[in-house]
Amino acid sequence: MVKLITKILRSDTGKAVIVALDHGLQYGILEGFENPRLTLLKVLNGEPDGVRISEGFLYHFYEELTRNPNLKKIITPDVYDVSITNGETRGIMQDQLFSVSEVVRLGGDAFDAFLILGRKDPLLLEKNMKYLARIIEEAHNFGVPVLIEPLPSEFAEKGIRLALELGADGIECPYISDMKRFASIVENSPIPILIAGGAKKDPKEVFQMVKEAQDAGAKGVIFGRNIWQHENPAGMIKGVKEVVHNKASIEKALEILQKQI
Description:
Blueprint: E1 16-20, H1 24-27, H2 36-44, E2 50-53, H3 55-60, H4 62-65, E3 72-75, E4 78-85, E5 88-96, H5 100-106, E6 110-116, H6 122-141, E7 146-151, H7 156-166, E8 170-174, H8 179-188, E9 193-196, H9 203-215, E10 220-223, H10 225-228, H11 233-246, H12 250-260
Parallel strand pairs: 1-2, 1-10, 2-3, 3-6, 6-7, 7-8, 8-9, 9-10
Antiparallel strand pairs: 4-5
């Protein structure tokens, strides 16, 4: 049986460099992402293997996103946020926003959903797991792969195992600087792991993170702020791609970044 995850990984390397552009669902407007179309065009100029976006983003920028037939469109079907009332945290809100059938109709290639662990109310995890099981079943009926992003990182091992048991095709895992721990996570996971980048970092630190993760067996990255908050998003993408697909050194990636400026 051909694994569905191969639909979003490059056939020659079995890896992918995906740029996350779904931050508006959770944060609204962020620095470097004030103009969604302009940011998208800067990202596409770097020729990523895919983008992580919302259904609405795909709907509004369909023309731009379908010019390159090889660009994979990974849809975030849910949203999570910390609900705050009068300055007091009331808990983490999470729910499904987009239907599988509508995303498939628009040409979405995969889903990437959240698994939130560590919440005090066990019913929230129950609801989360039932929702994930449902969306995985629906997506698989259309032949569409589903990635799961377990959060926070201290529960990575448990989250990845739960994702496996639910039938996930891949994992978006927060970057874990303890390489011994991360290598063990990758080794014990029968499904591919791509790392998330988190908050913006210095380019050298980003490339170091990418190289360490690939050396440990990761199958690529899903980066957002470390791409489009940089003054040269296309250069960052090309540098990351060189490390992921061609096993380039950090110095080579930095050289590529400088050439793009």
